[in-house]
Design a protein that fits this description.
The protein is of the alpha+beta class. The chain has six helices and four strands. The longest helix is centred in the C-terminal third of the chain and has 18 residues, at about 160-180.
Length: about 210
Amino acid sequence: MSWYAAEAWVNYHNAIGCGGHTNWRLPIVPPAAQIRGYIGNPGTEFGSLFFTGLGGVPGTSIDNSHNGNYVLFTNIQSKEGVVGTYWTGTEFSINQGAWIFETRGVQDVFYEWAMEYAWALAPASPATLLASLLKEVTGIGPGQSLANKVRLAQTYCAAKDLQATCAVLTDFVSEVSAQTGKKLTTAQAAKFTSDAKAIMAAIGCK
């Protein structure tokens, strides 16, 4: 379907309360993550799913290289090496353009009238995601520093202070990076970073 049809399809999901949810949408691409080409996880929802959730490899079709989570999904448009292209809900800065994600780890821009696939999601609330992140980091890392940052983000999020919430999460990601290979394993750091960036994307951090 075209990008316009994909947006209409998502709106229909919300109109009928599909699956009991009325917050369906296409995945988003925050401004800081608007990078074209073969990339590692750029801090987007598709990137987090492809690289962290499914263990994808840049340049390789997801059906050829993935982890055990791949079996949790059906109808992924990437079979026998044929790449599927999915719309995001983020338009490009030029007319009639929108960001897409290919199931080989490529992020790019296509014309909105092109015929691609759509993958709707009904995201958990930021409060739920922050609670999950807090559970992950409690007792891990340098003292209580990481957990305290998440608690502070929760406080700002509850007060609907988007700027402060984003600032704290940015500090969290920076600390995780600084502690990689020290107080955190590479795997822990990748998971914490991916989850924090997913929250930032969900709340619209710039």
